[in-house]
Amino acid sequence: MTFDGETQNGPSLIDPFGRQINYLRVSVTDRCDFRCFYCMAEDMHFLPKKDILSLEELDRLCSAFVHQGVRRLRLTGGEPLVRKGILTLISSLSRHIETGALEELTLTTNGSQLKRMADDLANLGVKRINVSLDSLKEDRFNAITRWGKFSLVMDGIEAALAAGIKLKLNMVALNGVNDDEFDDMIRYCHERDMDLTIIETMPLGEIDHDRLDLYLPLDQVKRQLSQSWTLSPSRHKTGGPATYMSVAETGGRIGFITPLTHNFCESCNRVRVTCTGTLYMCLGQEDAVDLRAPLRASESDDLLLQEICGAIARKPLGHDFIIDREHNRPSIGRHMSVTGG
Ligand code: SAM
Ligand code: SF4
What we know:
The chain is α/β, with parallel strands linked by helices. The chain has twelve helices and 14 strands. The strands form two sheets. A twelve-stranded mixed β-sheet has the order 9-10-11-8-7-6-5-4-3-12-13-14. The protein has a two-stranded antiparallel ribbon with strand order 1-2.
């Protein structure tokens, strides 16, 4: 069922399962200055520039969703902050914050550009950022990201905190790689008043490693953590898929994103658009709708809105991620950097 009529709060997008879609994640580029080994192959082929939406097209697309009741917008990638002109896009989109149409404009970033951009982002109304950091050990960080610069990311985190931006750190749990660092990461984050979210690896895209060897179920991580920390369930919600636990010793929180061990689809409120304007109604399904053609076909948004509403009417109930020896191939062929995390 699609409802694009006016509600008390303006138009809204409701999917066939009655879920209100009010959260859009937009991958503004498939390119990245890192090559995290669980995310990308080292030798990645990126999309030709002509296929990528311009900044103006991205603005129009995001604004169409905002018009349809999207209240939260997350820019991601690839690495969103390496997209040329990204601050211009953010500056333009921030008008929806000023009008109150958008509750939040936020980013997921690897932190490499934060040192030079944190003040600008704060001035443009970005209040919360997720930074991905899988290790606090420089050698290990280098091995995981392949091309990353540890000190730049650490400085970037400090710069964003100094600019008054609330940070959450995302750490992908990687069996045999960073599974001895959860305690250090909790201390590092909570000392700086940052939440930490631990994520299960998802079977997205071909990489140079065996995903099953890397996979670490978060139930196991929680058991490990409860030996050192007093954890209790927290009702905290950010509009994303994480469930939170409070840590008595630090007063901070840990989020757990468990697409494999605990499917969280029943409360899904989001859809994703790639930098070529392809709308994926679910991160874990192949079904998609092209929004670039209607965007480029006319200056009016009528066609675009029609496609968006039609797509929401096809949003599936959930993903079918599975990871075991029998299914030791990506469930989904595209990389996380295409659809955005
Ligand atoms: N480059 C930015 C960054 O790293 O934050 C934004 C894009 S990245 C694809 C978004 C998030 O997805 C990151 O936190 C990253 O660790 C996570 N990620 C990438 N591939 C993943 C996978 N296969 N399973 C789980 N998380 C993954
Ligand atoms: Fe780049 Fe983010 Fe993927 Fe790492 S996780 S390769 S930083 S897109």
